[in-house]
Design brief:
269 residues; mainly alpha; single chain; 13 helices
């Protein structure tokens, strides 16, 4: 009865649909990002998205339409930095993150009447979700699932050995670019609910949890997808019952499952 009453509210329906789809996409993309040691790119892109959203709100532009191309460009820049052996990938992410946060904060400080809107992006809010966000989440989820089904073996090869993939004639840069674009879209859409400070956890925690339980790439991907969706649903329900922030509650659920997986691995050893 409580669940029926909870999901009778339109904003909870939107949060459930969009959150499940974004969590699924983040988990699938997160496995490749973590294995390629690109996991911090998600954190850097979330800060870039916050800066872009602050500028968009200040200029009166639709935030999603402005932030998506900005975050995609930032993803290209970070991938190029990661591919260049003469540059430090960590330093590039740190510099871009700090600069984006500084720009966003400066814009907020010089603009009145936008605190509530920016707070919803920075810390997340289920009330900020719209049916347009849900529609975009459906399109994104369809794109990510199609990519994984059609290019599963190529993604596997690029994830584990880029040098060998290049030697066999595989267009590594093309698949890295596709991964960057989908990651950027996932982060921008997920920020509406999770917030810029917490969205990267949807990419990192499910992948780390699955890697503690399974060895094969396929099992890790499937486990990460299931864990991400289950943790989001649990966090959403707990946040509604106890009136806690959705983003923080979902991350706490992911953390609890991750610690349980670590304990299970230790006991198994």
């Amino acid at each position: 009865m409580m669940l029926l009453e909870m999901f009778s509210w339109p904003f909870m329906q939107r949060a459930l649909i969009a959150g499940v789809l974004v969590s699924l996409c983040a988990a699938l993309l997160g496995v490749s990002l973590v294995l390629k040691r690109y996991s911090m790119i998600g954190d850097g892109l979330s800060h870039v998205s916050f800066g872009a959203l602050a500028i968009a709100v200040a200029l009166g532009i639709t935030p999603l339409y402005f932030s998506i191309p900005v975050v995609i460009l930032a993803a290209f820049f970070l991938l190029r930095a990661a591919d260049n052996p003469n540059r430090s990938n960590d330093a590039a992410i740190a510099a871009l993150s700090a600069a984006s946060l500084a720009i966003g904060i400066l814009v907020i400080s010089r603009t009145s009447g936008m605190t509530t809107d920016v707070d919803s992006y920075m810390f997340g809010s289920v009330l900020a979700m719209t049916w347009a966000d849900v529609a975009l989440s459906v399109v994104l989820c369809a794109a990510v699932l199609t990519m994984f089904i059609l290019f599963y073996h190529k993604i596997f090869a690029v994830t584990f050995d880029e040098s060998f993939s290049r030697a066999t004639g595989l267009h590594v840069n093309r698949y890295n670019t596709l991964l960057a674009i989908l990651t950027a879209l996932t982060i921008v859409l997920g920020m509406r609910m999770m917030g810029a400070m917490l969205i990267s956890s949807l990419i990192i925690f499910p992948a780390l949890t699955a890697m503690r339980l399974f060895r094969s790439f396929r099992n890790v991907v499937l486990c990460a997808a299931v864990m991400s969706v289950v943790c989001f649903c649990a966090g959403l329900i707990i946040s509604f019952v106890y009136s806690t922030p959705v983003g923080a509650t979902v991350v706490a659920a992911d953390l609890a499952v991750f610690l349980a997986a670590c304990a299970a691995r230790l006991l198994r050893r």
